[in-house]
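Deliverable D5.2: sample structural annotation.
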Amino acid sequence: MERTIYYRPLGDSITLGTGAFFHRGFIHSYSNAITNVFKQPVRTELFAQRGMMSSELKQLLNDSTIQRRLAPANIITITIGSNDLLEAHDHFLNTFNPIVFERAEETFYKNLIEIIWTLHLIKYYHPSPYFIRLIGLYNPFPHLPYSAFWINRFNAILHSMESPLVRYVDVLTPISIRGRRVLSFGGVHPNRKGYQLIAKKINETGYEPLSYLQL
């Protein structure tokens, strides 16, 4: 019997595919991977906006209309945190006080807990098998001496959220190895190859607990 897989990508400009021009970012490649795995149609609905911060995603998920649209989700991917860190960087340039990064880190941690909790709650009231993939941050500014430290700290928060239903996707390592070859002309967002790489890394995390749906 044919069954539809419901995929709901959430997040910022990385989820939107900014920088890929006529390519649909990692969403297109990953949706194709899902179809190949399950041999069933994938219905995708995107919830993302450029510049989205964790506080804005948290607020979005409190909207009852959005919750209803997320209810059937079997697969959820999230890209969030980059703009929290960029905003802290902008404040740092004005104050040169590193406490702005510490505050951003604390806020991101609290917001991420609430985001994941809300998604679990939505699925609790609309039970169907599902999983969540948290896509890590990469470093588009390796020339900044403090960038690696704080990106690793934010990635550590994402990684700490792992559970049987939540997996962290490391994209920092493969993107750092390939460097500018997988980034767009502006050097901030991935290019087509970069997004294909992200999709590949998500795919490698597997499909538990949906694997029983495989033909």
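Annotation notes: The chain has a mean pLDDT of 94. The beta strands are 5-11, 42-44, 47-48, 75-79, 131-135, 166-169.
The annotation will be released with the project's public dataset once the embargo ends.
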